[in-house]
Design a protein that fits this description.
Layout (H helix, E strand, L loop, with lengths): L9 H22 L4 H13 L4 H8 L3 H13 L3 E6 L2 E9 L6 H17 L3 H27 L2
Antiparallel strand pairs: 1-2
Helix pairs in contact: 1-2, 3-4
């Protein structure tokens, strides 16, 4: 007769995973000569496309002053540009125009390892994983918005 398998503490396992992802993000940013927030902002722009400074700042969790300095740094490094908004010439849009040349090289080892891990799952398992990632991302984005704007 077998005994039930004891499951690890899901919250602890998940927090360790998130911590490892954040640690890698910080190390990757440093390896590219950027701050973690700078690399995070470039990722936001790559995923969302051009944004107003206010939208970028809100998504990055920054207030106006730090957002302006962030955009200044990224613009000076050649990663973004400010352009007039097509619908209102008084507004500015921040467009991504580049990324650190060494970013793909810096990320290669982790991408390869994660790719190898994913290759070990069948299509049904991958469907569950991707569904989780999409739904969890939405949940975190909504929770962050509620924290930012209040109840």
């Amino acid at each position: 007769m077998s005994t039930p398998r004891e499951r690890p503490d899901a919250g602890r396992v998940y927090r360790r995973y998130l911590s490892a992802v954040l640690l890698h993000g910080h190390a990757s940013a440093r390896a590219c000569g950027l701050g973690a927030t700078d690399l995070y902002a470039l990722n936001i722009l790559e995923l969302a496309g051009p944004l107003t400074p206010g939208e970028l700042g809100a998504r990055a969790g920054l207030t106006t002053g730090p957002t302006t300095r962030l955009i200044d740094r990224l613009e000076q490094a050649g990663y973004v540009r400010r352009v007039p908004a097509p619908d209102d010439r008084r507004k500015v849009i921040v467009e991504p125009i580049g990324k650190p040349a060494q970013l793909d090289q810096v990320m290669a080892a982790a991408r390869r390892e994660v790719g190898d891990i994913l290759a070990g799952y069948n299509d049904d398992q991958l469907d569950v994983l991707y569904d989780y990632f999409r739904r969890a991302a939405r949940a975190y984005e909504e929770a962050a918005e509620q924290l930012r704007t209040g109840p």
